[in-house]
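[job 0412] stage=fold_complex status=start
inputs:
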Amino acid sequence: MTGLALPAIVLMVVVNAYPVVFAGIQAVHDGDLLGLGNFVGFANFQDALTDPLFWRSARFTVIFSLCGVFGSWMIGFALALMLKPSFPGKNLFKILLLLPWIVPIVVSSMSWNWLTATPGSLLPTLAADLGFGRVMFLADPTMAMITVCIFKIWISYPFMMMMMSAALEGIEPNVNEAARVDGANARQRLRYIVLPMTARSTYISWILMAMFSVNDFATIFLLTGGGPVNSTTSLIVLAYRSVFQDFRPGFGVAISFLMTAALVTMSVILLRQMRKANMQ
Amino acid sequence: MDDTIASRLKMTRRSFLGTSAAAAATVALGQNAAFAAEEIKFWDMVWGTGASYTAAARELVGSYQPAGDNLGVRYQSIPWANWYQTFTSAAASRTTPAVSSGAAFLPFYFIEKGVIAPADDLIASIDKAGTNDFLPGVLDAMKTDLGYAAMPWSMDLRVIWVRKSLLEKAGVEAPTDWQSFIKVGEALKKIDVVGLGLAGGSTTTDGQHTVSALLINNGGGLFAKDGTLDCVNDRNIETLDFLNELVRKGIIDPYAASYTSDNVTRDWLSGRIGMGFGQTGLDKNFPAEQQPDLAVISPIKSPRGDTGTVYYINPLMMFKTTASQASSEAFLGWYLDNMKIFWEKGVAIDVPVRKSIADLPILKQNANLQKSIAEWQPIGKTIGAQAPHPFGALNAVDGGGAGAAFIQQIIEGKTGSKQILETLQAALEKIVK
Amino acid sequence: MSTLASRPRKLALDPRRAGIGRTLLTAIVTLVMLGPILVVFWLALRPRLYTEITGPTLETFAYIFAETDILLWLKNSAMVSILATLISVIVAAPAGYVLSRGRGGAVSAYSLFIFVLQSFPVVVFVIPLFIMFASVGLVDSLSGVAIIYVASSVAVACWMMSAYFDTIPVTLEEAAWIDGCSVFGGFVRIVLRNSLPGVLSTAIYAFLLAWNDYLVALVFLRSDDRFTLPIGLQTFFQQNQTDWGPVMACAVVMLAPPVLIFALLNRFFSIGGIGGALAGK
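[job 0412] stage=fold_complex status=done
writing structure:
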């Protein structure tokens, strides 16, 4: 039976093996994009781990991923709950709410830029009218971090909404109804019935989204390019810039290896926890 | 294993596409066009006015009739987005075209790596034909120890533009030195107009061009005369202090820290920016009736009495992956002789580098361009200033993350000048080996 | 008692009222969420730079269809995406079956293997990938790009298929096996035949990934006649400014096919519980 998995394995090995091995070799050399350079052992890894920018980027990666995971989960879950009962127009809204996921990111990053970049843009004008004064959504380092995280949540919530909608479909209607008859209010039903019964989907959606977020290059790069002053530089953006803009592929690849190792370790631990908790 | 995937691909393709199978096959089959024998490839960036430039360039290349045994040329437009990735992956896999335009310092990197052929022979043949009318210094700027890295075709020269109506409204004359620049900026600020418009976002190099221009203006630059990194020097600190004053007085817009080049162009168009560095064709971005409102001013003097600005020479390079070097040279020579049409049609916004083009009547009538050529071009240097000639590592300096963070720190205005320059020096040391 | 007494009345009133209230609430939330997308439409309906027209106009659409190769880009995008989707499903379905039904060390190792591969950032490995593809002539080729899309979508596709297969009782295949059906035959005739929603969900996921990608296409596609839509968009970006009208009009065109697909296949699409395989059996 395992033979059925062969095409997928072959495909993945054929496409990935050479690049990964090649990158592994680059990671222990000091060359540029056109030449391998000299063998330097683990110097690139050492450089990465001692570079303050690496740790700053790691910090932002964590913030960005946590927002991406929990922010989009909360919104996606809330929308899934809202869309659960049937009401007029439900299917239309279901499709409309998926649009942020469908719009190509090249385009949505432009529309977000249009909404936020200049003082005359819609959101800064609105913020000023509401008495918040001068809000620089992209030009202020802290605000830029917030804006990028919100952008990420906006792009990702439809995925969560679909995951959680499917999970909610799995709850037997009479369980909920029985609880209602027993006098459980909406919040109690959410806490003691809906959340536990969707826990497995929830955890899995978290792990998947964490994986998508850590590796998410386009969202950040197209909106802020990692600025201002590196405030929105995540590890993947740093790795990309090191490889392609600074011509230091060894350093960039080392960063991505460290990143992947951390991601896999974290996910494996989470999955093991899940299995222990027997959330099958 | 490869075979199974390939055959699987063909199978699905055939069964799915049915009728358009023939078209699909030509499109889907990978071709290494650089080695195709019938014609050579010419890659061209989206210069000047964009779509209209590309249309003009495609038409020009389409009209090329190779003489003798020389091969014909196929035009391919290349987007600016992630250009470094496009070129480095092509070079690494030897799929570069025969001839290509590109970013200013790419040829210097490529010639060091042995990817492109020096242009010495082509220059010699132009000399022999007696048509060498390149403006003074332009060819020299392409020279390296390994020969001429590329042919220059135009120059992205940064000059100070003002909007006359806004200066008038603010009741001031154009500045002549740094002190008066601040005065004018303050007056503009009073009418809510930005006095030094620039785009400092991480996806553009516009802000880096402005700051480089001012560093050179004060006789400084990122490199010493011997070509080593020298960011932290007195002249540069003075320039950053000047910029910091502009930030504190609101003459530089804090929003500029995230501006894309599109954002800044739109601010020029809306009248929010009254003054700033720009390409010599900045006015081409405006509707015709507003173009006369824009004027290039004379270079301004730094407190030390120096003048200067930054320029980038747009290169045309010849890759070694050509099917025939003779064909590459024949085409490039012809292209350089016939490109005046870009200026005649108004689709090029940079300065021509040949006298025969600069002397075109349409350019003679352009007072802003003539002023740029007469007053600004002679005082220009590359971002390699004060090093004697450009080198490959500048490619990473121009447009890298270190440069973007440098500009953003300046616009943020929270860090001391010396510290900003030290941060830049440390970041560049990792890149410039 | 009072709750019980009031329930019938509430039940009688609730559905319609609550229904309309919910429609309103959902409409408001949707409007807020779609703000940035309304911007896309609004900009697409604005006149182009430097024209005399004021007010909404379809001028940009007329322009992109008349003056650009958008139909070609559309065709290329469709070809790449459909090719990638087909291969993705063909490859992921049997692999997902193994993940769903298989037990033991080999399957766990396989599960971890695809997980690790999925965690590698493609964007950093583009150069070696490019060199490899160039050596077999798959650069500047729509099938080359499609293969990369398959490779980047196949892991999640496997999980999605496997999650769906989990919902199909094993007893069905077992009965078929007893009747002399092979494992493969049982998979195709029994399991796959009953998994249309799972297949469609996987297909939509793979399609979207391919349809919207721009980073891979930007590097791998080099000729005008092979540009996909996201790369075609790039031709509107000038050195210093962008002609937003045509860009946004292209974006609207680009949105149409996926939206249509969702609208048509909405009821089949569910990506819930991807994790059977991921969580380990």
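[job 0412] summary: Chain A touches chain B through 37 residues (CB under 8 Å).
[job 0412] exit 0
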